Amino acid sequence: VAKERGRQRIVLFDPSIDARQQQRLNYEMGLREALNKDELFVRYQPRFEISGRRIVGAEALVRWESQEHGLVPPDIFIPIAEGTRLIVDIGRFVLEQACHEAVRWAEQGEAVPVSVNLSPKQLREDGLWSDIQRILRESGLAPNMLELELTESMLVDNIDLVLPLLQRIRALGVNIAIDDFGTGYSSLAYLKQLPIDTVKVDRSFINDVPGSPEDETLLQAIVSMARSLNYRVVAEGVESEQQRAFLETLGCDELQGFLLGRPEPGNMLISQVIRAREGTPEGDRGAGRLG
Ligand code: C2E
Ligand code: MG
Ligand code: MG
Ligand code: MG
C-alpha cells in the first residue's frame, strides 16, 4: 500500500507531466468519488418521429456536476472513465436510473422507450447480461421499452465476443442501436449480421445539409442503404427546420436534436410528450427560433 501510495504521489506531482495530463488525473480522482457523492445524474433527450409531432423515445445522457470542477461534459469524463473500471459502475448507474425513470413515465400513462449508451468496457465485463436482466426485473420495465446504443467500433473490434452477447440481450426483448453511425469504418452490409434494430446517423453528416452537395449525397446514401436493410433510421443533432424537412424527404424515420428537444430532467419528459402531441409543431418551432 505504501508503495502504491508513493507511486501515486510521484505521478500526481511530477512537474514533467503536462497540464492536460494533470487535469485528467484530477478528473479521474473526482470521478472515483462522484457516485458516492451523488454528483452524477441523468438527463433525457426526446427522440421524435420525423414529422416532429410525436415523441417516440428518449436517450439517457449522464451528467457530472462536480463540487470541485463544476459541470464536466461527458465528452470529457466518459473517455476518462473508460480508461478505468469506473465506466462499468457509471454505466450500471445510468441503466438503473433510466429503467426506473421509464417505468415512472409508463405509470403516468406515457410509455416512452428509453435508450442507454453502452461503452466497450461494459461489453467486455461478464456481468452485463445479468445486470440488464436484474435491472429490468427490479424496475419492472418491459424489455422492449429499453434500447442499448453501441458504436460501430465496439461491434467490429470484437465481433466473436460481442455477437453472442448481443443475441442474448436481444433474446430478452431489448432493442439495439448503432450510435454515431458513419464515423467508424464498418459497412452496413457487414453490420447486417448483427442483431440491430436502429441506426443513429452521426451529427457530422447532418451539420451541413441542406447546402453541401457532398454531404447531401453522403447522407442520402447512408439513409437509403439503412432503410433498404430495414433499420429504423434516426438522425442525430438536428438543429434546424431545414435539416428536419430534408431528412424527411430522404425517408429518415426519426430525429433527435436541439430543434425539438434538449436533454432535460426525467420529470420534464411527460410535459414534452403532451406538448408535442397537442401543440402545433410548426408554430412551436418558429417561436423557439425567434425567442
Ligand atoms: P451520443 O450518445 O451520440 O449522444 C448525443 C449527444 O449529442 C449528446 O451530448 C446530446 O446532448 C448531443 N446533442 C443532441 N442533439 C444535439 C444538437 O442538435 N446539436 C448538438 N450540437 N448536440 C446535440 P452529450 O450529452 O454531451 O453526450 C456526449 C456523448 O457522451 C454521447 O454521445 C455519448 O457518447 C457519451 N455519453 C453520454 N452519456 C453516456 C452514458 O451514460 N454512457 C456512456 N457510455 N456514454 C455516454
Ligand atoms: Mg447515444
Ligand atoms: Mg450519437
Ligand atoms: Mg456522439
From TrEMBL:
Domain EAL: residue ranges: 24-277
Protein localization: Membrane
UniProt name for this protein: GGDEF domain-containing protein
Organism in which the protein naturally occurs: Halomonas halmophila
Entire-sequence positions represented here: 731 to 1021 of 1021
